[in-house]
Amino acid sequence: MLEDEFVDIVRKAKRGNRIDNAAIGAATGLPLEDLKAWEDGKRVPDEDAARAIARVLQLDPGKLADAAARRWEPHVALPPDVRHHPQDPHPSNGYLFFLDDGKTAALIDPAGIPANLMRAINEGPYTLRYILITHKHADHCDATADVARAYPQATIVMHKQDVAAIGDLAQIALPVVDGEELPFGDNATIRMLHTPGHTDGSACYLFRSTLFTGDTLFAGSVGGAFGNISTYRDILDSVRTKIFSLDDATVLMPGHGPPSTVAQEKAHNPFF
């Protein structure tokens, strides 16, 4: 099931473009009562209406019409070197990925009930090398202190523009920069991509052919723009220039919703 439906996509685009229903109605001739009903999820627009709304919001008309009709969702298998775990009580995704030895691992976004994270790590059992944080929101980092206390050998990695969210641990976090590669085992690396827009310090982490996108990119959507200095345009540019420049077969593991690939997002994401 996709994280964002038609109504979520439209709300994000309206907010990002600073366009309200009155402006959409004036540009398209669509009745305000219909726009309100669609936005409230009470009804869905037909093909022509969805395409008209998309053109005003600078979205792809065909892809938005597909989203309204629920004609697409990805079906991508979890890579063999990745494990997923829910971040209860948050509705966010957590991941562990590991080396060929099956013992050395990195954790993406320590959040939720700490005992659940410990269980996921200990089931390996893994030696935790990195704690990688995609951004500052609590549903992605509120268990950082507990995980760091349990695995003191693990290096915390977080962009400097978001690192204040983890309190005193910010002083020991590794302040990686865009494009920097972290050594991981003898023959692997992890590359950080700075993708501002959702937050100023939003980051994605590339391991082999898998990219952990946090809330920068979801299957069929993007995260909301909540940066202090970065903007809606920044999040779109981050996806176009950083994520879409990767190989089409790259598997995308988002902070919410199902996995996708670069190729599928190019083909189906209404924002592009």
Description:
There is one protein chain. By secondary structure, the chain is α+β, with helices and mostly antiparallel strands. It has two domains: 6-69, lambda repressor-like DNA-binding domains (434 Repressor (Amino-terminal Domain), Orthogonal Bundle), CATH 1.10.260; 98-268, 4-Layer Sandwich (Metallo-beta-lactamase, Chain A), CATH 3.60.15. It has ten helices and 13 strands. It has helices spanning 6-17, 21-28, 32-39, 47-56, 61-69, 114-123, 138-141, 144-150, 232-243, 262-268, and strands spanning 82-86, 93-98, 104-108, 127-132, 155-157, 181-184, 188-194, 203-207, 210-214, 217-218, 221-222, 251-254, 260-261. The strands form three sheets. A six-stranded mixed sheet has the order 6-7-8-9-12-13.
Low-pLDDT regions: none
- C-alpha termini separation: 20 Å
Q: What is the number of helices?
A: 10
Please, how many domains?
2
Biggest β-sheet strands, sense, barrel: 6 strands, mixed
N-to-C SSE series? HHHHHEEEHEHHEEEEEEEHEEH
Could you state the CATH homologous superfamily of the largest domain? Ribonuclease Z/Hydroxyacylglutathione hydrolase-like
In terms of structural class, how would the helical and strand content be classed?
Answer: alpha+beta
Helix content: 25-40%
Mean pLDDT: 97
Q: What is the CATH level 1 assignment of the largest domain?
A: Alpha Beta
Q: What is the annotated CATH architecture of the largest domain?
A: 4-Layer Sandwich
User: Looking at the structure, what is the overall shape?
Assistant: elongated
Q: Compute the CA-based radius of gyration.
A: 19 Å
**What portion of residues belong to β-strands?**
15-25%
Q: Largest sheet, order of strands side by side?
A: 6-7-8-9-12-13
CATH topology of the largest domain: Metallo-beta-lactamase, Chain A
Give the total of beta strands.
13
